[in-house]
Amino acid sequence: MYDQIMEQRKLEIDPWKIVETGFDPRNGRTCMASESLFSIGNGAMGGRANFEEHFSGQTLPGNYLGGIYYPDKTRVGWWKNGYPEYFAKVLNSAFWPGVDICIGGQRLDLAVCPVEAFRRELDMRRGLLSRTFVARVSDRVRVEVCVRRFVSMADPELGALAYELKLLSEEAVEVVATPFVEGDVRNEDANYDEKFWELCGVDRERATLTMRTRKTGFEVSWAQRVAVVAAGNPVAGERFAQAERVSERFVCTLQPGESLRIDKFVGVATSMNHAAEELTQAACAVAEKAAAQGFEQELGAHEAAWEEKWSGCDVAIDGDDAAQQGIRFCIFQLLQTYTGRDSRLNVGPKGFTGEKYGGSTYWDTEAYCLPFYLCTSGEEVARQLLRYRYRQLPQAIENAAKLGFRDGAALYPMVTMTGEECHNEWEITFEEIHRNGAIAYAIYNYCRYTGTRDYLLEGGLEVLIGIARFWAQRATCSEPKDQYVILGVTGPNEYENNVNNNWYTNFLAGWCLQYALLAAGYVAKHHPEHYRRIVEVTHLNAGQDEFARWRRVADGLFLPEWSTPAGPIFLQQEGYMDKEQRLAKDIPAEQRPINQNWSWDRILRSCFIKQADVLQGLYFFQEMFDLETIARNFDFYEPRTVHESSLSPCVHSILASLTGRTEKAYELYLRTARLDLDDYNHEVHEGLHITSMAGSWLSVIEGFGGVRVGADGRLHVRPRLPRQWRALTFEIHYRGAILRFEIGRDEVCVASTNGVAVEVVIGQVECLVNDRTVHVKIEA
Ligand code: BGC
Predict the structure, then answer these.
(1) Residue of 415, 411, 403 lying closest to 363 (CA atoms)
(2) 0.85 exceeded by pTM
(3) Given 35, 251, 556, 611, which residue has the most CB atoms within 10 angstroms?
(4) Residue 494 annotated to the active site
(5) Active-site choice (121, 303, 420, 494)
(6) To test ligand 1's pocket by mutation, which of 334, 355, 364, 648 has the most ligand atoms within 8 angstroms of CB?
C-alpha cells in the first residue's frame, strides 16, 4: 500500500526526513498537500511551505501567528439566545518568505517554467525546510535553485531563508531579485472574501510593514533585512514601500556558472508581546541582529534549540521504516506547534498548517496533547496548558452564566481563542459538554503523572470547583428513574446529536464530581491556608452544602447499559439499540467516508459512531475496569465505529493493545501514524491533523509500549510489540528523570539518562531505575 501511495505522492521513506521528488503543477491538490506537509513553525508562528518565488499555480498561502485571530460573524440564519457571537478564525498573515525572481526579463514561476530535478526536504532533526530544482526560464536560460528556510526555534520572532541561484545557460543574463513581505493577504475561509487586516504603515527606509487586524485590533510589524551576493560580490539593493508591501530590489548580471545568494531575515513582532509604539523597533531589532549574525549562525542556533527539543523524546522503531518516519513526523509537528513558552497559546487542531478549525483550542488539547507534552517536553511545558484553562476560568463561568447556570458553575468552551465560546455549530459542537470533563481529567492526569498535587493549589482546585458546579446543576433528577440524568448532549460521537444519557458524558460527569471532592479534601487537609483562600474566592459551600449535592449527583447518575450475548456493555446513549444495528464493514467502500457521501439525516439515523466514545471513557479510566469489560465493549463498538475523526483510531488502537488484540492494534495504528503523510482522507491540502498526532504517539507509547501510571501511582510498562517490529526504543520525561526504554521481543532495558532515580514496574518486576541499565525479561 505504501509503495502505491509513495508512487503517487513521490514521498520517500526516510527516518529523519520528509523528502519529495518531482513536481507537477497540474496536480493542484497534491501541490497544496505538500505545502501542508512541509510546514514549519516555532510555537509562536509558523506557516505552510509555499514557494518563496511567485507561483501562479494552485496554492493555499498560510502564515499564522499564535493567538492572533479574527472574530468572524457566526453565519447562521437561525441565531438563537446562547449562541456564540462569533466564530474565531486564525488569520493568514503577511507573506514573509517572498522572493520574486526575474531572469532575462522572465519571471521565475514554477507553474509556468518547466522544472527538472525538483526535491523538497523537511529535515525534522534540524527543523529545516529546503528545496532544490532546475527550472528552464526560456529556451536558452536554465537556473539551478537551492532554498533553505526556517522559523527560528531559538528566536520566536525570526524567520530566515537563504536563496541560492546558479545560472546554467551559456550566456550572461540579468537577474532581478526582489525579496518582499506582502501584507495584502486573505483567508480562504473568509465568508465574503473580505480582508481581515488593515494597513497601519509601511516604512521604506526601515523596510517595515505594520498591519492591524480588523475588530480585534492586534498589531503586527514585519521588518525585512536582506544581504545579496552575486559571484562573490555584495550587491546593493533599493528599498520600496508600496501599499501593503515592503520590498528590496537587487539587480545584477550573472555569467554562465555564476551564482547569486540572497540571505533574508524577517523580524515579526506582535502587540501580544510588545507595546504598539515599539513594534517596528522590535521587529527591526530581530531582523538586524540576525542579519549581523548571518544565516549560517542563526541556523546553528535554531538547530541547537531543536537538538535540545529532541533530547529525551525520540522514538525509534526497528523493523518498520514507514512507521518510523510516521512517528517522528508526529513528534516533530507537535514540538513545533507548541513550546509552552506562552500560557496564552495552545494547540490548534491544524496548528500552523492551515485555516480549518480556526486555529482554536478544542478538548483535543486535554484529551490527547497534554500527555504527549508531559512525556516529551516535561512538566513545565505541560503545566502551561493547564494554566491556559485557569486563566480562562472567568470566561468559562461567564459562558455558563449565559446559559442560565449560576453560583460560579463553569462551562469551558468547545472551541476558543480567549476563553469565549466561538464555535459555529450548535448541535454538533456546543452540545459536546463532555469537554468540561476532559479539562478536569487533564488536571488529574497531570497530578498522577508528575506525582505532585501542587497544581491544585495554583489553580487546579478552582477549575475543578467550577466544573463540578456545572455538572451538579446540569444533571437533573428523573422521577421515573429515580436517578440523575444528563439530557440533550452530543458525545464525542458527533454523528448523533441531542441525545440523552450518553454513557461517556454521564460517567465523566460523575467522576469529575468525585475528583473535585477528593481534591478539595486534599487541599483542606494538607494546605488549610490555601483552602481558606480558595473557599473565599469561590464562595464554596457558602449558604448551602455544595459537597452534599455533588456527592448525591455523583452517586446517583444514571449509566445506561445493555445486555448482549457476550455480557453487559455500557450503552452509547439511551435508545441506541433502537437503531438498525449494522456494521461499518458492510458500508460499501464507495460510500465511505459517510460524512462525504450520506445526507446528514441518514448519518444521524444510523448506528455508526464517528469516533471513540464509550471507548474514550474506558481509555481514560482503564484502571477502574477489568480487562474483560474493556474487551467486551471494544468488540461491540469497534465494528460500529467509522473512525471519521482522526482522533479515533489511536484510542481504539490503545485498547486493542491493552486487551491483547495486537494485530488489530497495529491495523488501527497504521490508520493514524501516517494519516497525513499518506493522505488517507484526501484532505491534507487543507492542513495537517496536529492534535491527532498526539494520539498516534499515545498509541505507540501507551499502546505498544504499554506505559501507564497505574492505580498504585507508579509507572508501569507492559509492552505488546506488533510482530512487524523488532524493537521499540523511546525516551520519556518522568518525575525529573529522562527514561530511555529499549523494548525488544523478549526483554525490556531501561536506564535514567540523566541519573535521576525513579521506580518503574516492568511487567510484574519492580525496579529502581538509575543510570545503570536495568534488564527485565518479558514474554514474547
Ligand atoms: C472531532 C472533535 C474534535 C474536532 C477538532 C472533530 O472532527 O469530532 O472531537 O475536537 O474535530 O479536532
Answers:
(1) 415
(2) yes
(3) 35
(4) yes
(5) 494
(6) 364
